[in-house]
Design goal:
By secondary structure, this protein is an alpha/beta fold. The protein has helices spanning about 10-25, 45-60, 70-80, 85-90, 100-110, 115-125, and strands at about 5-10, 30-35, 60-65, 90-95. It has a single domain (about 5-129), classed as Rossmann fold (3-Layer(aba) Sandwich).
Amino acid sequence: MSVALVIVSHSVRLAEGVVELAAQMARDVDLRAAGGTDDGRIGTSFDKVSDAVTELRAAGHDVAILTDLGSATMTVEAVLDFLDEAELEHVKFSDGPLVEGAVAAAVTAQVGGDLDAVVAAGRARELFS
């Protein structure tokens, strides 16, 4: 099963930019931006994150989620709380630096890494030190 990424940011443009950058390094990885509130303001949206996860799972992917700041993490944790235990084996949060983590996670997914490897790559701060 391939691994896809959801990029969660308070900014629509930041989420889309991280997806654009990661896609340059991992053209075959399915990436979704979930940035901003439902009405386009700065913030995060439970529905945007949940919809991205649902869409990617329906396409048969495992899903790694990366975030920019604390309240985005809280939004992701809320989305994860609504998943059943079976789905939690296929959807995981990667708590690391957003840009570097997204690139590392996407490259790991591109070369066939499983969900745990992709999540670990997204957390690895020392890759870009």
